[in-house]
Structure formats: structure tokens, C-alpha cells
Specification:
Elements: E1 2-4, H1 12-15, E2 23-24, E3 39-45, H2 54-61, H3 64-67, E4 70-76, H4 80-89, E5 94-98, H5 100-107, E6 112-117, E7 125-128, E8 146-149, H6 155-166, E9 175-178, H7 183-190, E10 196-199, H8 203-210, E11 216-219, H9 223-230, E12 238-243, H10 244-249, H11 251-269, H12 273-279, H13 282-285, H14 289-299, H15 311-324, H16 326-330
Parallel strand pairs: 1-9, 3-4, 3-5, 8-9, 8-10
Antiparallel strand pairs: 2-4, 5-12, 6-12, 7-10, 7-11
Helix pairs in contact: 2-11, 6-15, 7-8, 12-14
Length: about 350
Amino acid sequence: MVTTVEGLTMPRTFLTFVSFVTLVSFVPTACGGRANQGLHVRIAVGGQNQMVYLPTTLAQELGFYRDEGLDVELQDFAGGAKALQALVGGSADVVSGFYDHTIQMAAEGREIVAFVSMLRFPGMILVTSPQGAGTITRIEDLKGRIAGVTTAGSSSQMMLTSMLQRHGVAPDSVSITAIGSAATAVAAIERGKVDVGMMADPAFTLVSRRNPGVRVLADLRTAAGVKEAFDTSTYPGAVLYAKGDWIRANRDTTGRLARAITRTLAWIQTQTPQEIAGKMPKLFRGEDDALYVEALKNSMPMFSPNGLMAADGAGVVRTLLAGSIEKVRTATIDVSTTYTNEFIHGR
């Protein structure tokens, strides 16, 4: 059962790098001469302040959506599960969320398809609180402890469950608590409201800088960290996904979105962390530019260079989810139907 940490007052310094507001882009009618200019698309983001979703915001800041003739509205949500709810409920057309949700939906008979992959690694970090660092030295020590995830049913919870099982810890022996993704997560960790938490940058870098004694139990930003946590060389993370019916009815728009993101991913590969940070809104960078650049530098390996989904990576996610979710374990799922690379040019 997932509960929510309450009574956390967010200091002013936390609020400088996080906002839970919706960003709306107003796009001029002149869009590079493309047909069907100004196509409006609502993208639900599973925590826009998290660096794992940086390409979604960066594409807007670089003008790549506009170049593709798109009027993109970015809707910010507290976590991936909430963004998925927006898609299912019809208030969003596309989700910037984690790939594993497409498999979970397939297990329920719903066709959700990822069409551009932004991360080749999940980018999350499992870290202890300062108070728990002395007694929690490995994942096996989490039995009987309190662990924080972004929201109930989020990808962070799914990955934590998989890690617990891999280390012989019964998931129901750990109390799971929703702590959000930025200021509230930082407060929960630093004040010891949870013993460990699944975090993303820049929140993790802020915590580790201010509390050097915290202990990292899993770092999913790099190939080595993913290999250690899941014994795999690839584990796709953030993607853009939509309902299969929507994609079939909006193939041109889907292709434009995919091009905007792949252009962004290619741009990231040619820039320094300082240059990338300089393009992000101050709302997300916060007052400490050096901290944001540090977080970005440590997260660079997770970004996909080309937007392609690796078939073996998709299979790994399905296998790990099956280990922790009975519905996935018992369902007949054709993983190839949960993603497509057809909109990635030059593949």
C-alpha cells in the first residue's frame, strides 16, 4: 500500500528549482512552410522537473516542435502514473513517461505504443537518507524499512520492487511511500521521513551535495549501474507513448513529434552540459547553475543518441515487470506491439 508523506514544508531554496505548474507553448502561425501548421498536441509529462524528461522540455526551448509545425502543450504531473491517467482519461494525447507503462497497459488489454525512446537507461538513483546511511549498506537491509517512490504505481516503484526481489527481499516487507520527485522528495530524504528513496536529478545531486554521507544503493544513470542492478546492458526509460488508435489517426503528427525529439537527442550529443543547461528554463535550473550542470554531467550517459528502442531492452523490461506484477506475468504480451521505430528516420 502506498501512502503519501504529509506535513513537509518546502523551504524557499527547494522551490527555486521545481514547479508543478503547466507550461504552455504558444506557437506562431508561421512554422517553416510545413503543411498543417500549428497542429496542437497535449503532452503529459511525468514530472517535468526531473532530468529524465529533459528532452521533452528541451525540444520546446530549442524551437524544434515549432519547426515541425506543432503547437505543443506540456502538462506537468507529479509522476508517470498520473501522466498515464491523463492519457487514458483523454485530457492528454501523448505521454512523456517510462516505457514500462506500455507493457503494463498491454497486460490489461490496452494498446499503448512508444514511438521514440529518450533514455537508454532509467536514470533513477536509490539513495539512503542521511539518518539511514549508517545501517543500510545494501538492498538486503531494506526489510522492515520505509522506501520513497515518486507516486503510487510509478516506474520508480516498479524498479524498486524488481531490485528488492532480485536481492531476496519480499516487496511487502518494505513500506512504500509516495514522496514526489523534487522538493518534497528532497525534504523526505533529508529529514529521514523515509529510509531510502528513488530519486532523479537534479534532486539527487542536491541531496548528495548537502549530505555527503548518504549512501547510493543503485545508480541507474549508467550502463555499469544498470548492469549491477538488473544484470542487463540496456533498460529503456523515458519515451513518448500514445494510444495505438491515436497514432494511426495522427501518423503525420506522430512523425513530427518523433523528429523533434530525435533532433533534440542529436543536439544533446554535440553539446557540453553547460551549453545544454543554458537552454533549459530557469524554472528547472534553479538559482544554482553549477549544481544543475553537475547533475546533467552525471546523467549524460542515459540519453539515447538516436531515439531507437532496442528490442532486447524492451524484452528485459517485460521480464522484470513479470517478476513483480502478476498481471504481466500471466498475460500473453507481444512486446513488439508496445513500441515502434517506424517514425525514427535513418534507423
